[in-house]
Amino acid sequence: MTVTMTAPLGVFGGTFDPIHYGHLRTAFELLQELRLGEMRFVPAGDPPHRAPPRATARLRLALVRAATADQPGFVVDDREVLREGPSYTVLTLRELRAEHPLRPLCLAIGMDAFAGLTEWHRWQELVELAHLVVAHRPGWQAPRDGPLGELLAARRTDRIADLHEAQAGRILVHAVTQLEISSTGLRDILAAGRDPRYLVPDTVCAQIRATGCYYSEPSTR
Ligand code: ATP
């Protein structure tokens, strides 16, 4: 077992179209409770396997910056917005691994995202590059069967210390406060002209209002 001196680097990817308190509270609880050194928000520029985002990558990135600005330990990483081509998480983790050869990496994902992991580009490599930290999400159960059930059986741990003592390879399912907020729901609220207050930070509300993006026709990247 390798004992490292640097606290794990959390990686929180997503489309963030737009970012909301479900993302922020989850990231905050994981940062604190798993004793991560930082939580990096990595907005996808061109997210694969889903419909194109409603907002431009630049605006989604700006909203993530606005939402996270006042929280120590929250860091915004714009590499997927700047990179050409589909925003494959495996590419980001390879880069982070090269930049931080010894540091534990923890890829944070919701249970809904974990349930679809086998659709991700080179998904088996993800757990070689990083630990997976899976946050409970309302309405989702941990897979019991199939490749993900097998992966969980082989890699699962309940020991937070395991995330600190190796660079990658373990899966920790962690209970977080359940907030039934989704970007899809927010886009519906905004499209209906309703106020998103208390679902997203006020700074995000202000920027959404200023750009008018989610109230108007879909934007192009
Ligand atoms: P959409 O509704 O557009 O699919 P979303 O709200 O699921 O978006 P994403 O940006 O796709 O947001 O999610 C990024 C990550 O955050 C994913 O790993 C997802 O599981 C997680 N996540 C999103 N909303 C929540 C929530 N309310 N609680 C916990 N995790 C969440």
Notes on the structure:
The protein is an alpha/beta fold and 221 residues long. It is built from 10 helices and 6 strands; from the N terminus they run βαβαβααβααβααβαα. Strands 3-2-1-4-5-6 form a 6-stranded parallel β-sheet, with helices on both faces. Helix 2 (57-68) packs antiparallel against helix 10 (202-211) and helix 4 runs parallel beside helix 6 (123-129). The model has no long low-confidence stretch (mean pLDDT 93). Residues 14-17, 22-23, 26, 109-110, 112-113, 135, 137, 179, 181-184 line the site of adenosine-5'-triphosphate.
Layout of helices and strands:
Blueprint: E1 9-14, H1 21-33, E2 38-43, H2 57-68, E3 74-76, H3 79-82, H4 89-99, E4 105-110, H5 111-115, H6 123-129, E5 131-135, H7 146-155, H8 160-165, E6 171-174, H9 183-191, H10 202-211
Parallel strand pairs: 1-2, 1-4, 2-3, 4-5, 5-6
Helix pairs in contact: 2-10, 4-6
The protein binds adenosine-5'-triphosphate.
Adenosine-5'-triphosphate (ATP) binds next to helix 1, strand 4, helix 5 and helix 9.
Structural class: alpha/beta
Chain oligomer state: single chain
> What is the molecular shape?
globular
Distance between the termini: 45 Å
- Largest sheet, if any? 6 strands, parallel
Number of strands: 6
User: Helix and strand string, N-terminal first?
Assistant: EHEHEHHEHHEHHEHH
Helical amount: 25-40%
Strand order within the widest sheet? 3-2-1-4-5-6
Strand content: 5-15%
Would you tell me the overall average pLDDT?
93
Molecules bound to protein = adenosine-5'-triphosphate
Number of helices: 10
Low-confidence stretches: none
Rg, alpha carbons: 17 Å
